[in-house]
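Same chain as my last thread, 582 residues:
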Amino acid sequence: MAKPLMLALAALAVALVSVRPVSAAQSGSEFFESVIGVSDGRKQPGGVGVLVENGEVSLVEGFGTYAIGNPTPLSGDSVFAVASVSKVVTAYTVLTFVQDGELSLDTSVAELLPDLGIPEGVQVRHLLSHTSGLEERFVGTASRDISSGPALREMLASELPPFSYEPGEVYRYSNWNAALLGLIVEELSGKSFAASVRERVFEPLGMSSSFYSREQHAGQNERVPGNKYDWDKGWEEFSPFYVLLEPAGGLMTTPDDMARFMTHLLSEEVAASDALSALYAPSWQPSADSAQAVGSGTMLRRHEGLRLASHTGAFQGVASCLVLVPEKRTGYFVVCNFENTSLGDSWREFVYQWFGVNQYAAAAKHDTPLPHGVYRDLRFQRSTRTAERLSALLGVGSELRITAANELSAAVSPLVVDSHPGDTFVVSGLDTFVRLRWYERSELRIAVLAVVLFAQLLMLLLILLKRPWKRAAEAKVRARCKFYWVINSAGLFVGLAAVGFVVAGLATVSPMELMYGYTGTMQVGIALAWVQSLLALLALGATPFTLMRRTAAKRARALRVCALLTLLSLSTVFFWLGWSIV
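reply #2:
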């Protein structure tokens, strides 16, 4: 009995010795494979993950390939467009000027950029935290040909959206905040934004493969193309686009370079610097007890005792996510060459796997019920371009309908109401929603559009049934009546064509593509919408003269009908004018 027992104990000892603990690289590999979601033998578009632990890079691993037609495997030296993660680099660059004493977070932006008409109260800190009050604008902020795009100052001078809120009043994410920061960098350095970032960030940190859209960077690898999946066609590669607002989303970099940047951000040097550590310091919070906040170029979150700083990015067929836990000197970066919408929530699994923190811990909610009404994401509440206004008109956007007891018509999970001063409230993910006035609701606008179309159809029907020119005695009157009928028919045809083109354009063009200027379909639709307004006025103005050549009673009825139709037409004209301000 003793000998078998000894043999069993020996075998157990050997087994225990041979069992190795799961290494960080193995667990990191599994984490990134799960987050990126690569399957099919890794022969499809995928991504690259970077893991930094205790201030050291522990893993850089690629999953998948450049594209279905390009089997080159993704790796740490693959060049990606990282979209809005660029804002973290922009913010850090600005903070280096603060560290050197050349700039203060309280400096008035109007003093730095006096020629842009910026309100006096807007400070540098407001741009860093997206609380300047700036609206958003997408159309025309990217191009297929970067060499022909306007310079940053030129774009800001001609295209800067309005400031519709007081500085510090609300959080309203806008790419133009980062664009203004980039111009401030140019003013302080006397160099282009790209050259200044290279000198102050890329070269000191050894980020030799990082550059910006406009740079003619000789010898650089081609950037990884973006890809999308179509259920009918399978994987498709996006045509290359370039962001014109480079400080907001124009960074091209590699996972290896991002690893260098992350180790610096998690270093003792940054932690010891009051200026640089502003990346992790709350600059704006929805409420005093909120678990979420905005730092200088980062989104902050307190979760079960952990402080997280993060930023995500999305572009044509590209998605990225940077998450840092400064106290642990740990974090990760993941970038995909396809539209991966799950990256923004990947931090939950990360804090659970690495720190044993409950990823779905309940967050504090306010007990005060939200006011009933229809709400829209503040970022898209008042777009200042025709295509974006048309999107809002047709109900394309983030709307919430609160009916009773905080019940929502749209799924927002989890709904964490952090603050609701007046008619705005902030939900999980730091999206700010504002209550719409009755005349701003999409259903009302669609109803007005439907009434106008019905009025035009009724108008044409009246003309076709009456055919007054056939009963006219004089040839001159017959010719005039035919002319009015032609004008009316043309107005109806153009009006229907305009609506058809606009609806087709919105249905066939992804929202992201509106960033790259008006598509051909949208240009035709918008032009026809204007023509439709003018022709509708002519047609409705001509209709009374066509129908009034009747008996007195019929003339009276016709005039009443045409007066109503004329009012509807005028409302249509004002409608298009109000929604077509360029």
